[in-house]
Amino acid sequence: MHNSSWTHKIKISKGHYNESDMLSENAFGIYFEFLDEANLIVSFKPLNDKFPVLTKDNNEAVLLNFEREFIEEDDIEYALEIMMLFNNSKRLVVKGTDKTEKIHAVIHMITAELSLETPSYIILKTVLKVLMLHLIRFQNNAFIDQDLNQKRVFQFLKLMEISFLKETKTEYYAAEMGISEKRLNQILKSKLNVTAKQIIQQRQITEAKRRLVKSEITIKELAYVLGFDSISSFSRFFKKFVKVNPSQYRIEHT
What we know:
- By secondary structure, the chain is of the alpha+beta class.
- It has two domains: 3-144, Jelly Rolls; 148-253, Homeodomain-like (Arc Repressor Mutant, subunit A, Orthogonal Bundle), CATH 1.10.10.
- It has helices at residues 76-88, 97-114, 121-144, 148-163, 170-177, 181-192, 196-214, 219-225, 231-242, 246-253, and strands at 10-14, 27-36, 39-45, 62-67, 91-95.
- Helix 2 packs antiparallel against helix 3 (121-144).
């Protein structure tokens, strides 16, 4: 891949957080707050979303952001793991010198490669994948230590990420998990302060925004892909959350 076609799709910066350092709202963002040698807080910005509240005056913090295209060439399973990493939890606490040193080392490799006059796409993509796999492992280990309800939240989010284009009813997910709709919503409200329907709708909006900006899909086709029976019903749904209709959003962001 030619240098000019990808170098603008990944960026790393050190110091306090500045929104201007983000490539775009359509980029993944990871904010590393190194508290000390053994403690690290990792915050995630999914596509078309924002970071949770950050400590903006941490001079030891590192912001890494990259666009979806930088990982889309990888296998589907890996891409799905990435989507779940960014959408399952907005913040990850990493404890242990061995873990923080691994993250430090990989960030240093990315920084060093990007500083070269002609950085290698293959090296950067490989090192970025190593970083993502470390974070996925840390997140999975964190869930092992959580209570049953937290595990059910993770189960729902994982199932939803796989199925939301075909299944948008809460009853489907509750049945797959072996619990009632009422119980599923009770768990999600207690842990995330949202219902299953709200999470599914937000995922639909995120996917709609991504496809409107990154593809040439028609509004009619997009409505069908997302499970709507007409353009008008999809447009009303989209405008309710985004405040503009799909056509206007595409014009404003392309």
